Amino acid sequence: MSYTLYYLPAASSFSVHIMLAEAGAEYKAIAVQRGKAGLETPEGNHLSQVNPKGTAPALIHNGTLRTEAAVIGRYLAAQFPDKLYFPQEGEEMWEALELSNYLSTDLHKTHTPLFEGLGHIAEAKEKTFERLDRTYTYLNNVLEGKKYLLGDKISILDFYLFNVMLWADMVDYDLSKFPNLIAFQKTVRERPSVAQALKEEGLA
C-alpha cells in the first residue's frame, strides 16, 4: 500500500520525505501551509482533521496515522529494513536511540524560539545561538573520523540531522565552524533521494 505524507516544506517532515524516496516507496506528498489558525491542507482545511495534533509530518499508511518525525523514521525503517537503517540490537542500538532523542529534542527544539518570532530579539537570539553552538559542537565531535553518525553506513538519523541543518541558513546561523558537519552535509546532499525530496518540496 502507498503512503500519504502531509508535509510543511523544509520542516522536520522533510526527513520523512527523504526516507520515503530513499526506500523507493510508493507515496503521495501533500504540502500544507501556515494559515491564521495553524497548518492547512491545500483545500483550506485545518490539518487537525488529518492529524489531531495539527502538526506535520503526518503519515498515513494502511489507514493508520503516524506522527512525529523521529517515530515515523523508526516506523519506515521497520517497513524497509533493507533500505533504511536503524540498528535493532547491541550497543549500536543504544547509541542510535540516544542520538535519535538528542536530535529530536536538544537540536530540533533549540531552533523553536527562532521560528516563533523571537529571532529578532537580540538577547533571545544570542542565547539560542549559544545553545546551538553547544549542540552542533557535540555533533561535530560525534562525526569525527566518521562519514555518518553511526559510522560508514547511512541511517535514518542522518536524514534527520541533514534536515535540521537546512534551518541554519533560514536563521542566519553559521555552520562553517564545524568542518565535520559541513563534510557530512555535502555527502548526504549528493544522494538521489535527497535531490528528489528537495525538488518535490521546491527547495532545490
UniProtKB/TrEMBL annotation:
Which SUPFAM superfamilies does the entry link to? GST C-terminal domain-like, Thioredoxin-like
A Pfam family annotated for this chain is GST_N
- Taxonomic source organism: Blastobotrys adeninivorans
The record places domain GST C-terminal at 89-204
The record's section on CDD domains has:
GST_C_Beta (cd03188), GST_N_Beta (cd03057)
The opening ranks of the lineage are: Eukaryota, Fungi, Dikarya, Ascomycota, Saccharomycotina
Q: Where is the GST N-terminal domain?
A: 1-84
The identity of this protein, by name, is ARAD1D38676p
Q: Record's family?
A: Belongs to the GST superfamily.
